[in-house]
Amino acid sequence: MALIELSVQGMTCNHCVAAVEKALRAVPGVQTVAVHLDTNSATVEGDSMDTEALVQAIESEGYTAQVR
After folding, report:
1. In what residue span(s) does the HMA domain sit (predicted)?
2. Is the pTM of this model over 0.70?
3. What local confidence, expressed as pLDDT, does residue 55 receive?
4. How many CA atoms lie within 13 A of 28 on its CB side?
5. What is the C-alpha separation between 1 and 14, in angstroms, rounded?
6. Nearest to 3 by CA among 58, 64, 42, 46
7. Average pLDDT over the chain, rounded to an integer
8. Distance CA 51, CA 29 (A)
9. Which of 34, 44, 61, 63 has the most CB atoms in a 10 Å sphere around its CB?
């Protein structure tokens, strides 16, 4: 199982956190997601995840992201 950390910019509230979590959970291979407003980050665990798909999922919600 792989662990990927992402930097997420643009989140300001718990609604933002929920939107990013939902988007990441929809990416194939993702098993667990933890999004942290205080550190502007997301940690994703799963198998055979495409890092570009993770970034695109976050950006589709209106935030910017990059793999740490």
Report:
1. 2-66
2. yes
3. 98
4. 3
5. 28
6. 46
7. 97
8. 11
9. 44
Q: How far is CA 62 from CA 3, 5, 11, 16, in A?
A: 23, 19, 9, 10
pLDDT at 63 (0 to 100): 98
Residue-wise pLDDT tens digits, 31-47? 999 999 999 999 999 99
Q: Where are the beta strands (DSSP E) in the chain?
A: 2-9, 30-36, 41-46, 64-67
Sheet with 64-67, strands from edge to edge, namely 30-36, 41-46, 2-9, 64-67
* Structural tokens at position 67: 């793999």
What local confidence, expressed as pLDDT, does residue 36 receive? 98
Both tokens assigned to 26? 């929809």
Give the separation between CA 49 and CA 38, rounded to whole angstroms: 25
Q: Which fold has domain 2-67?
A: Alpha-Beta Plaits (3.30.70)
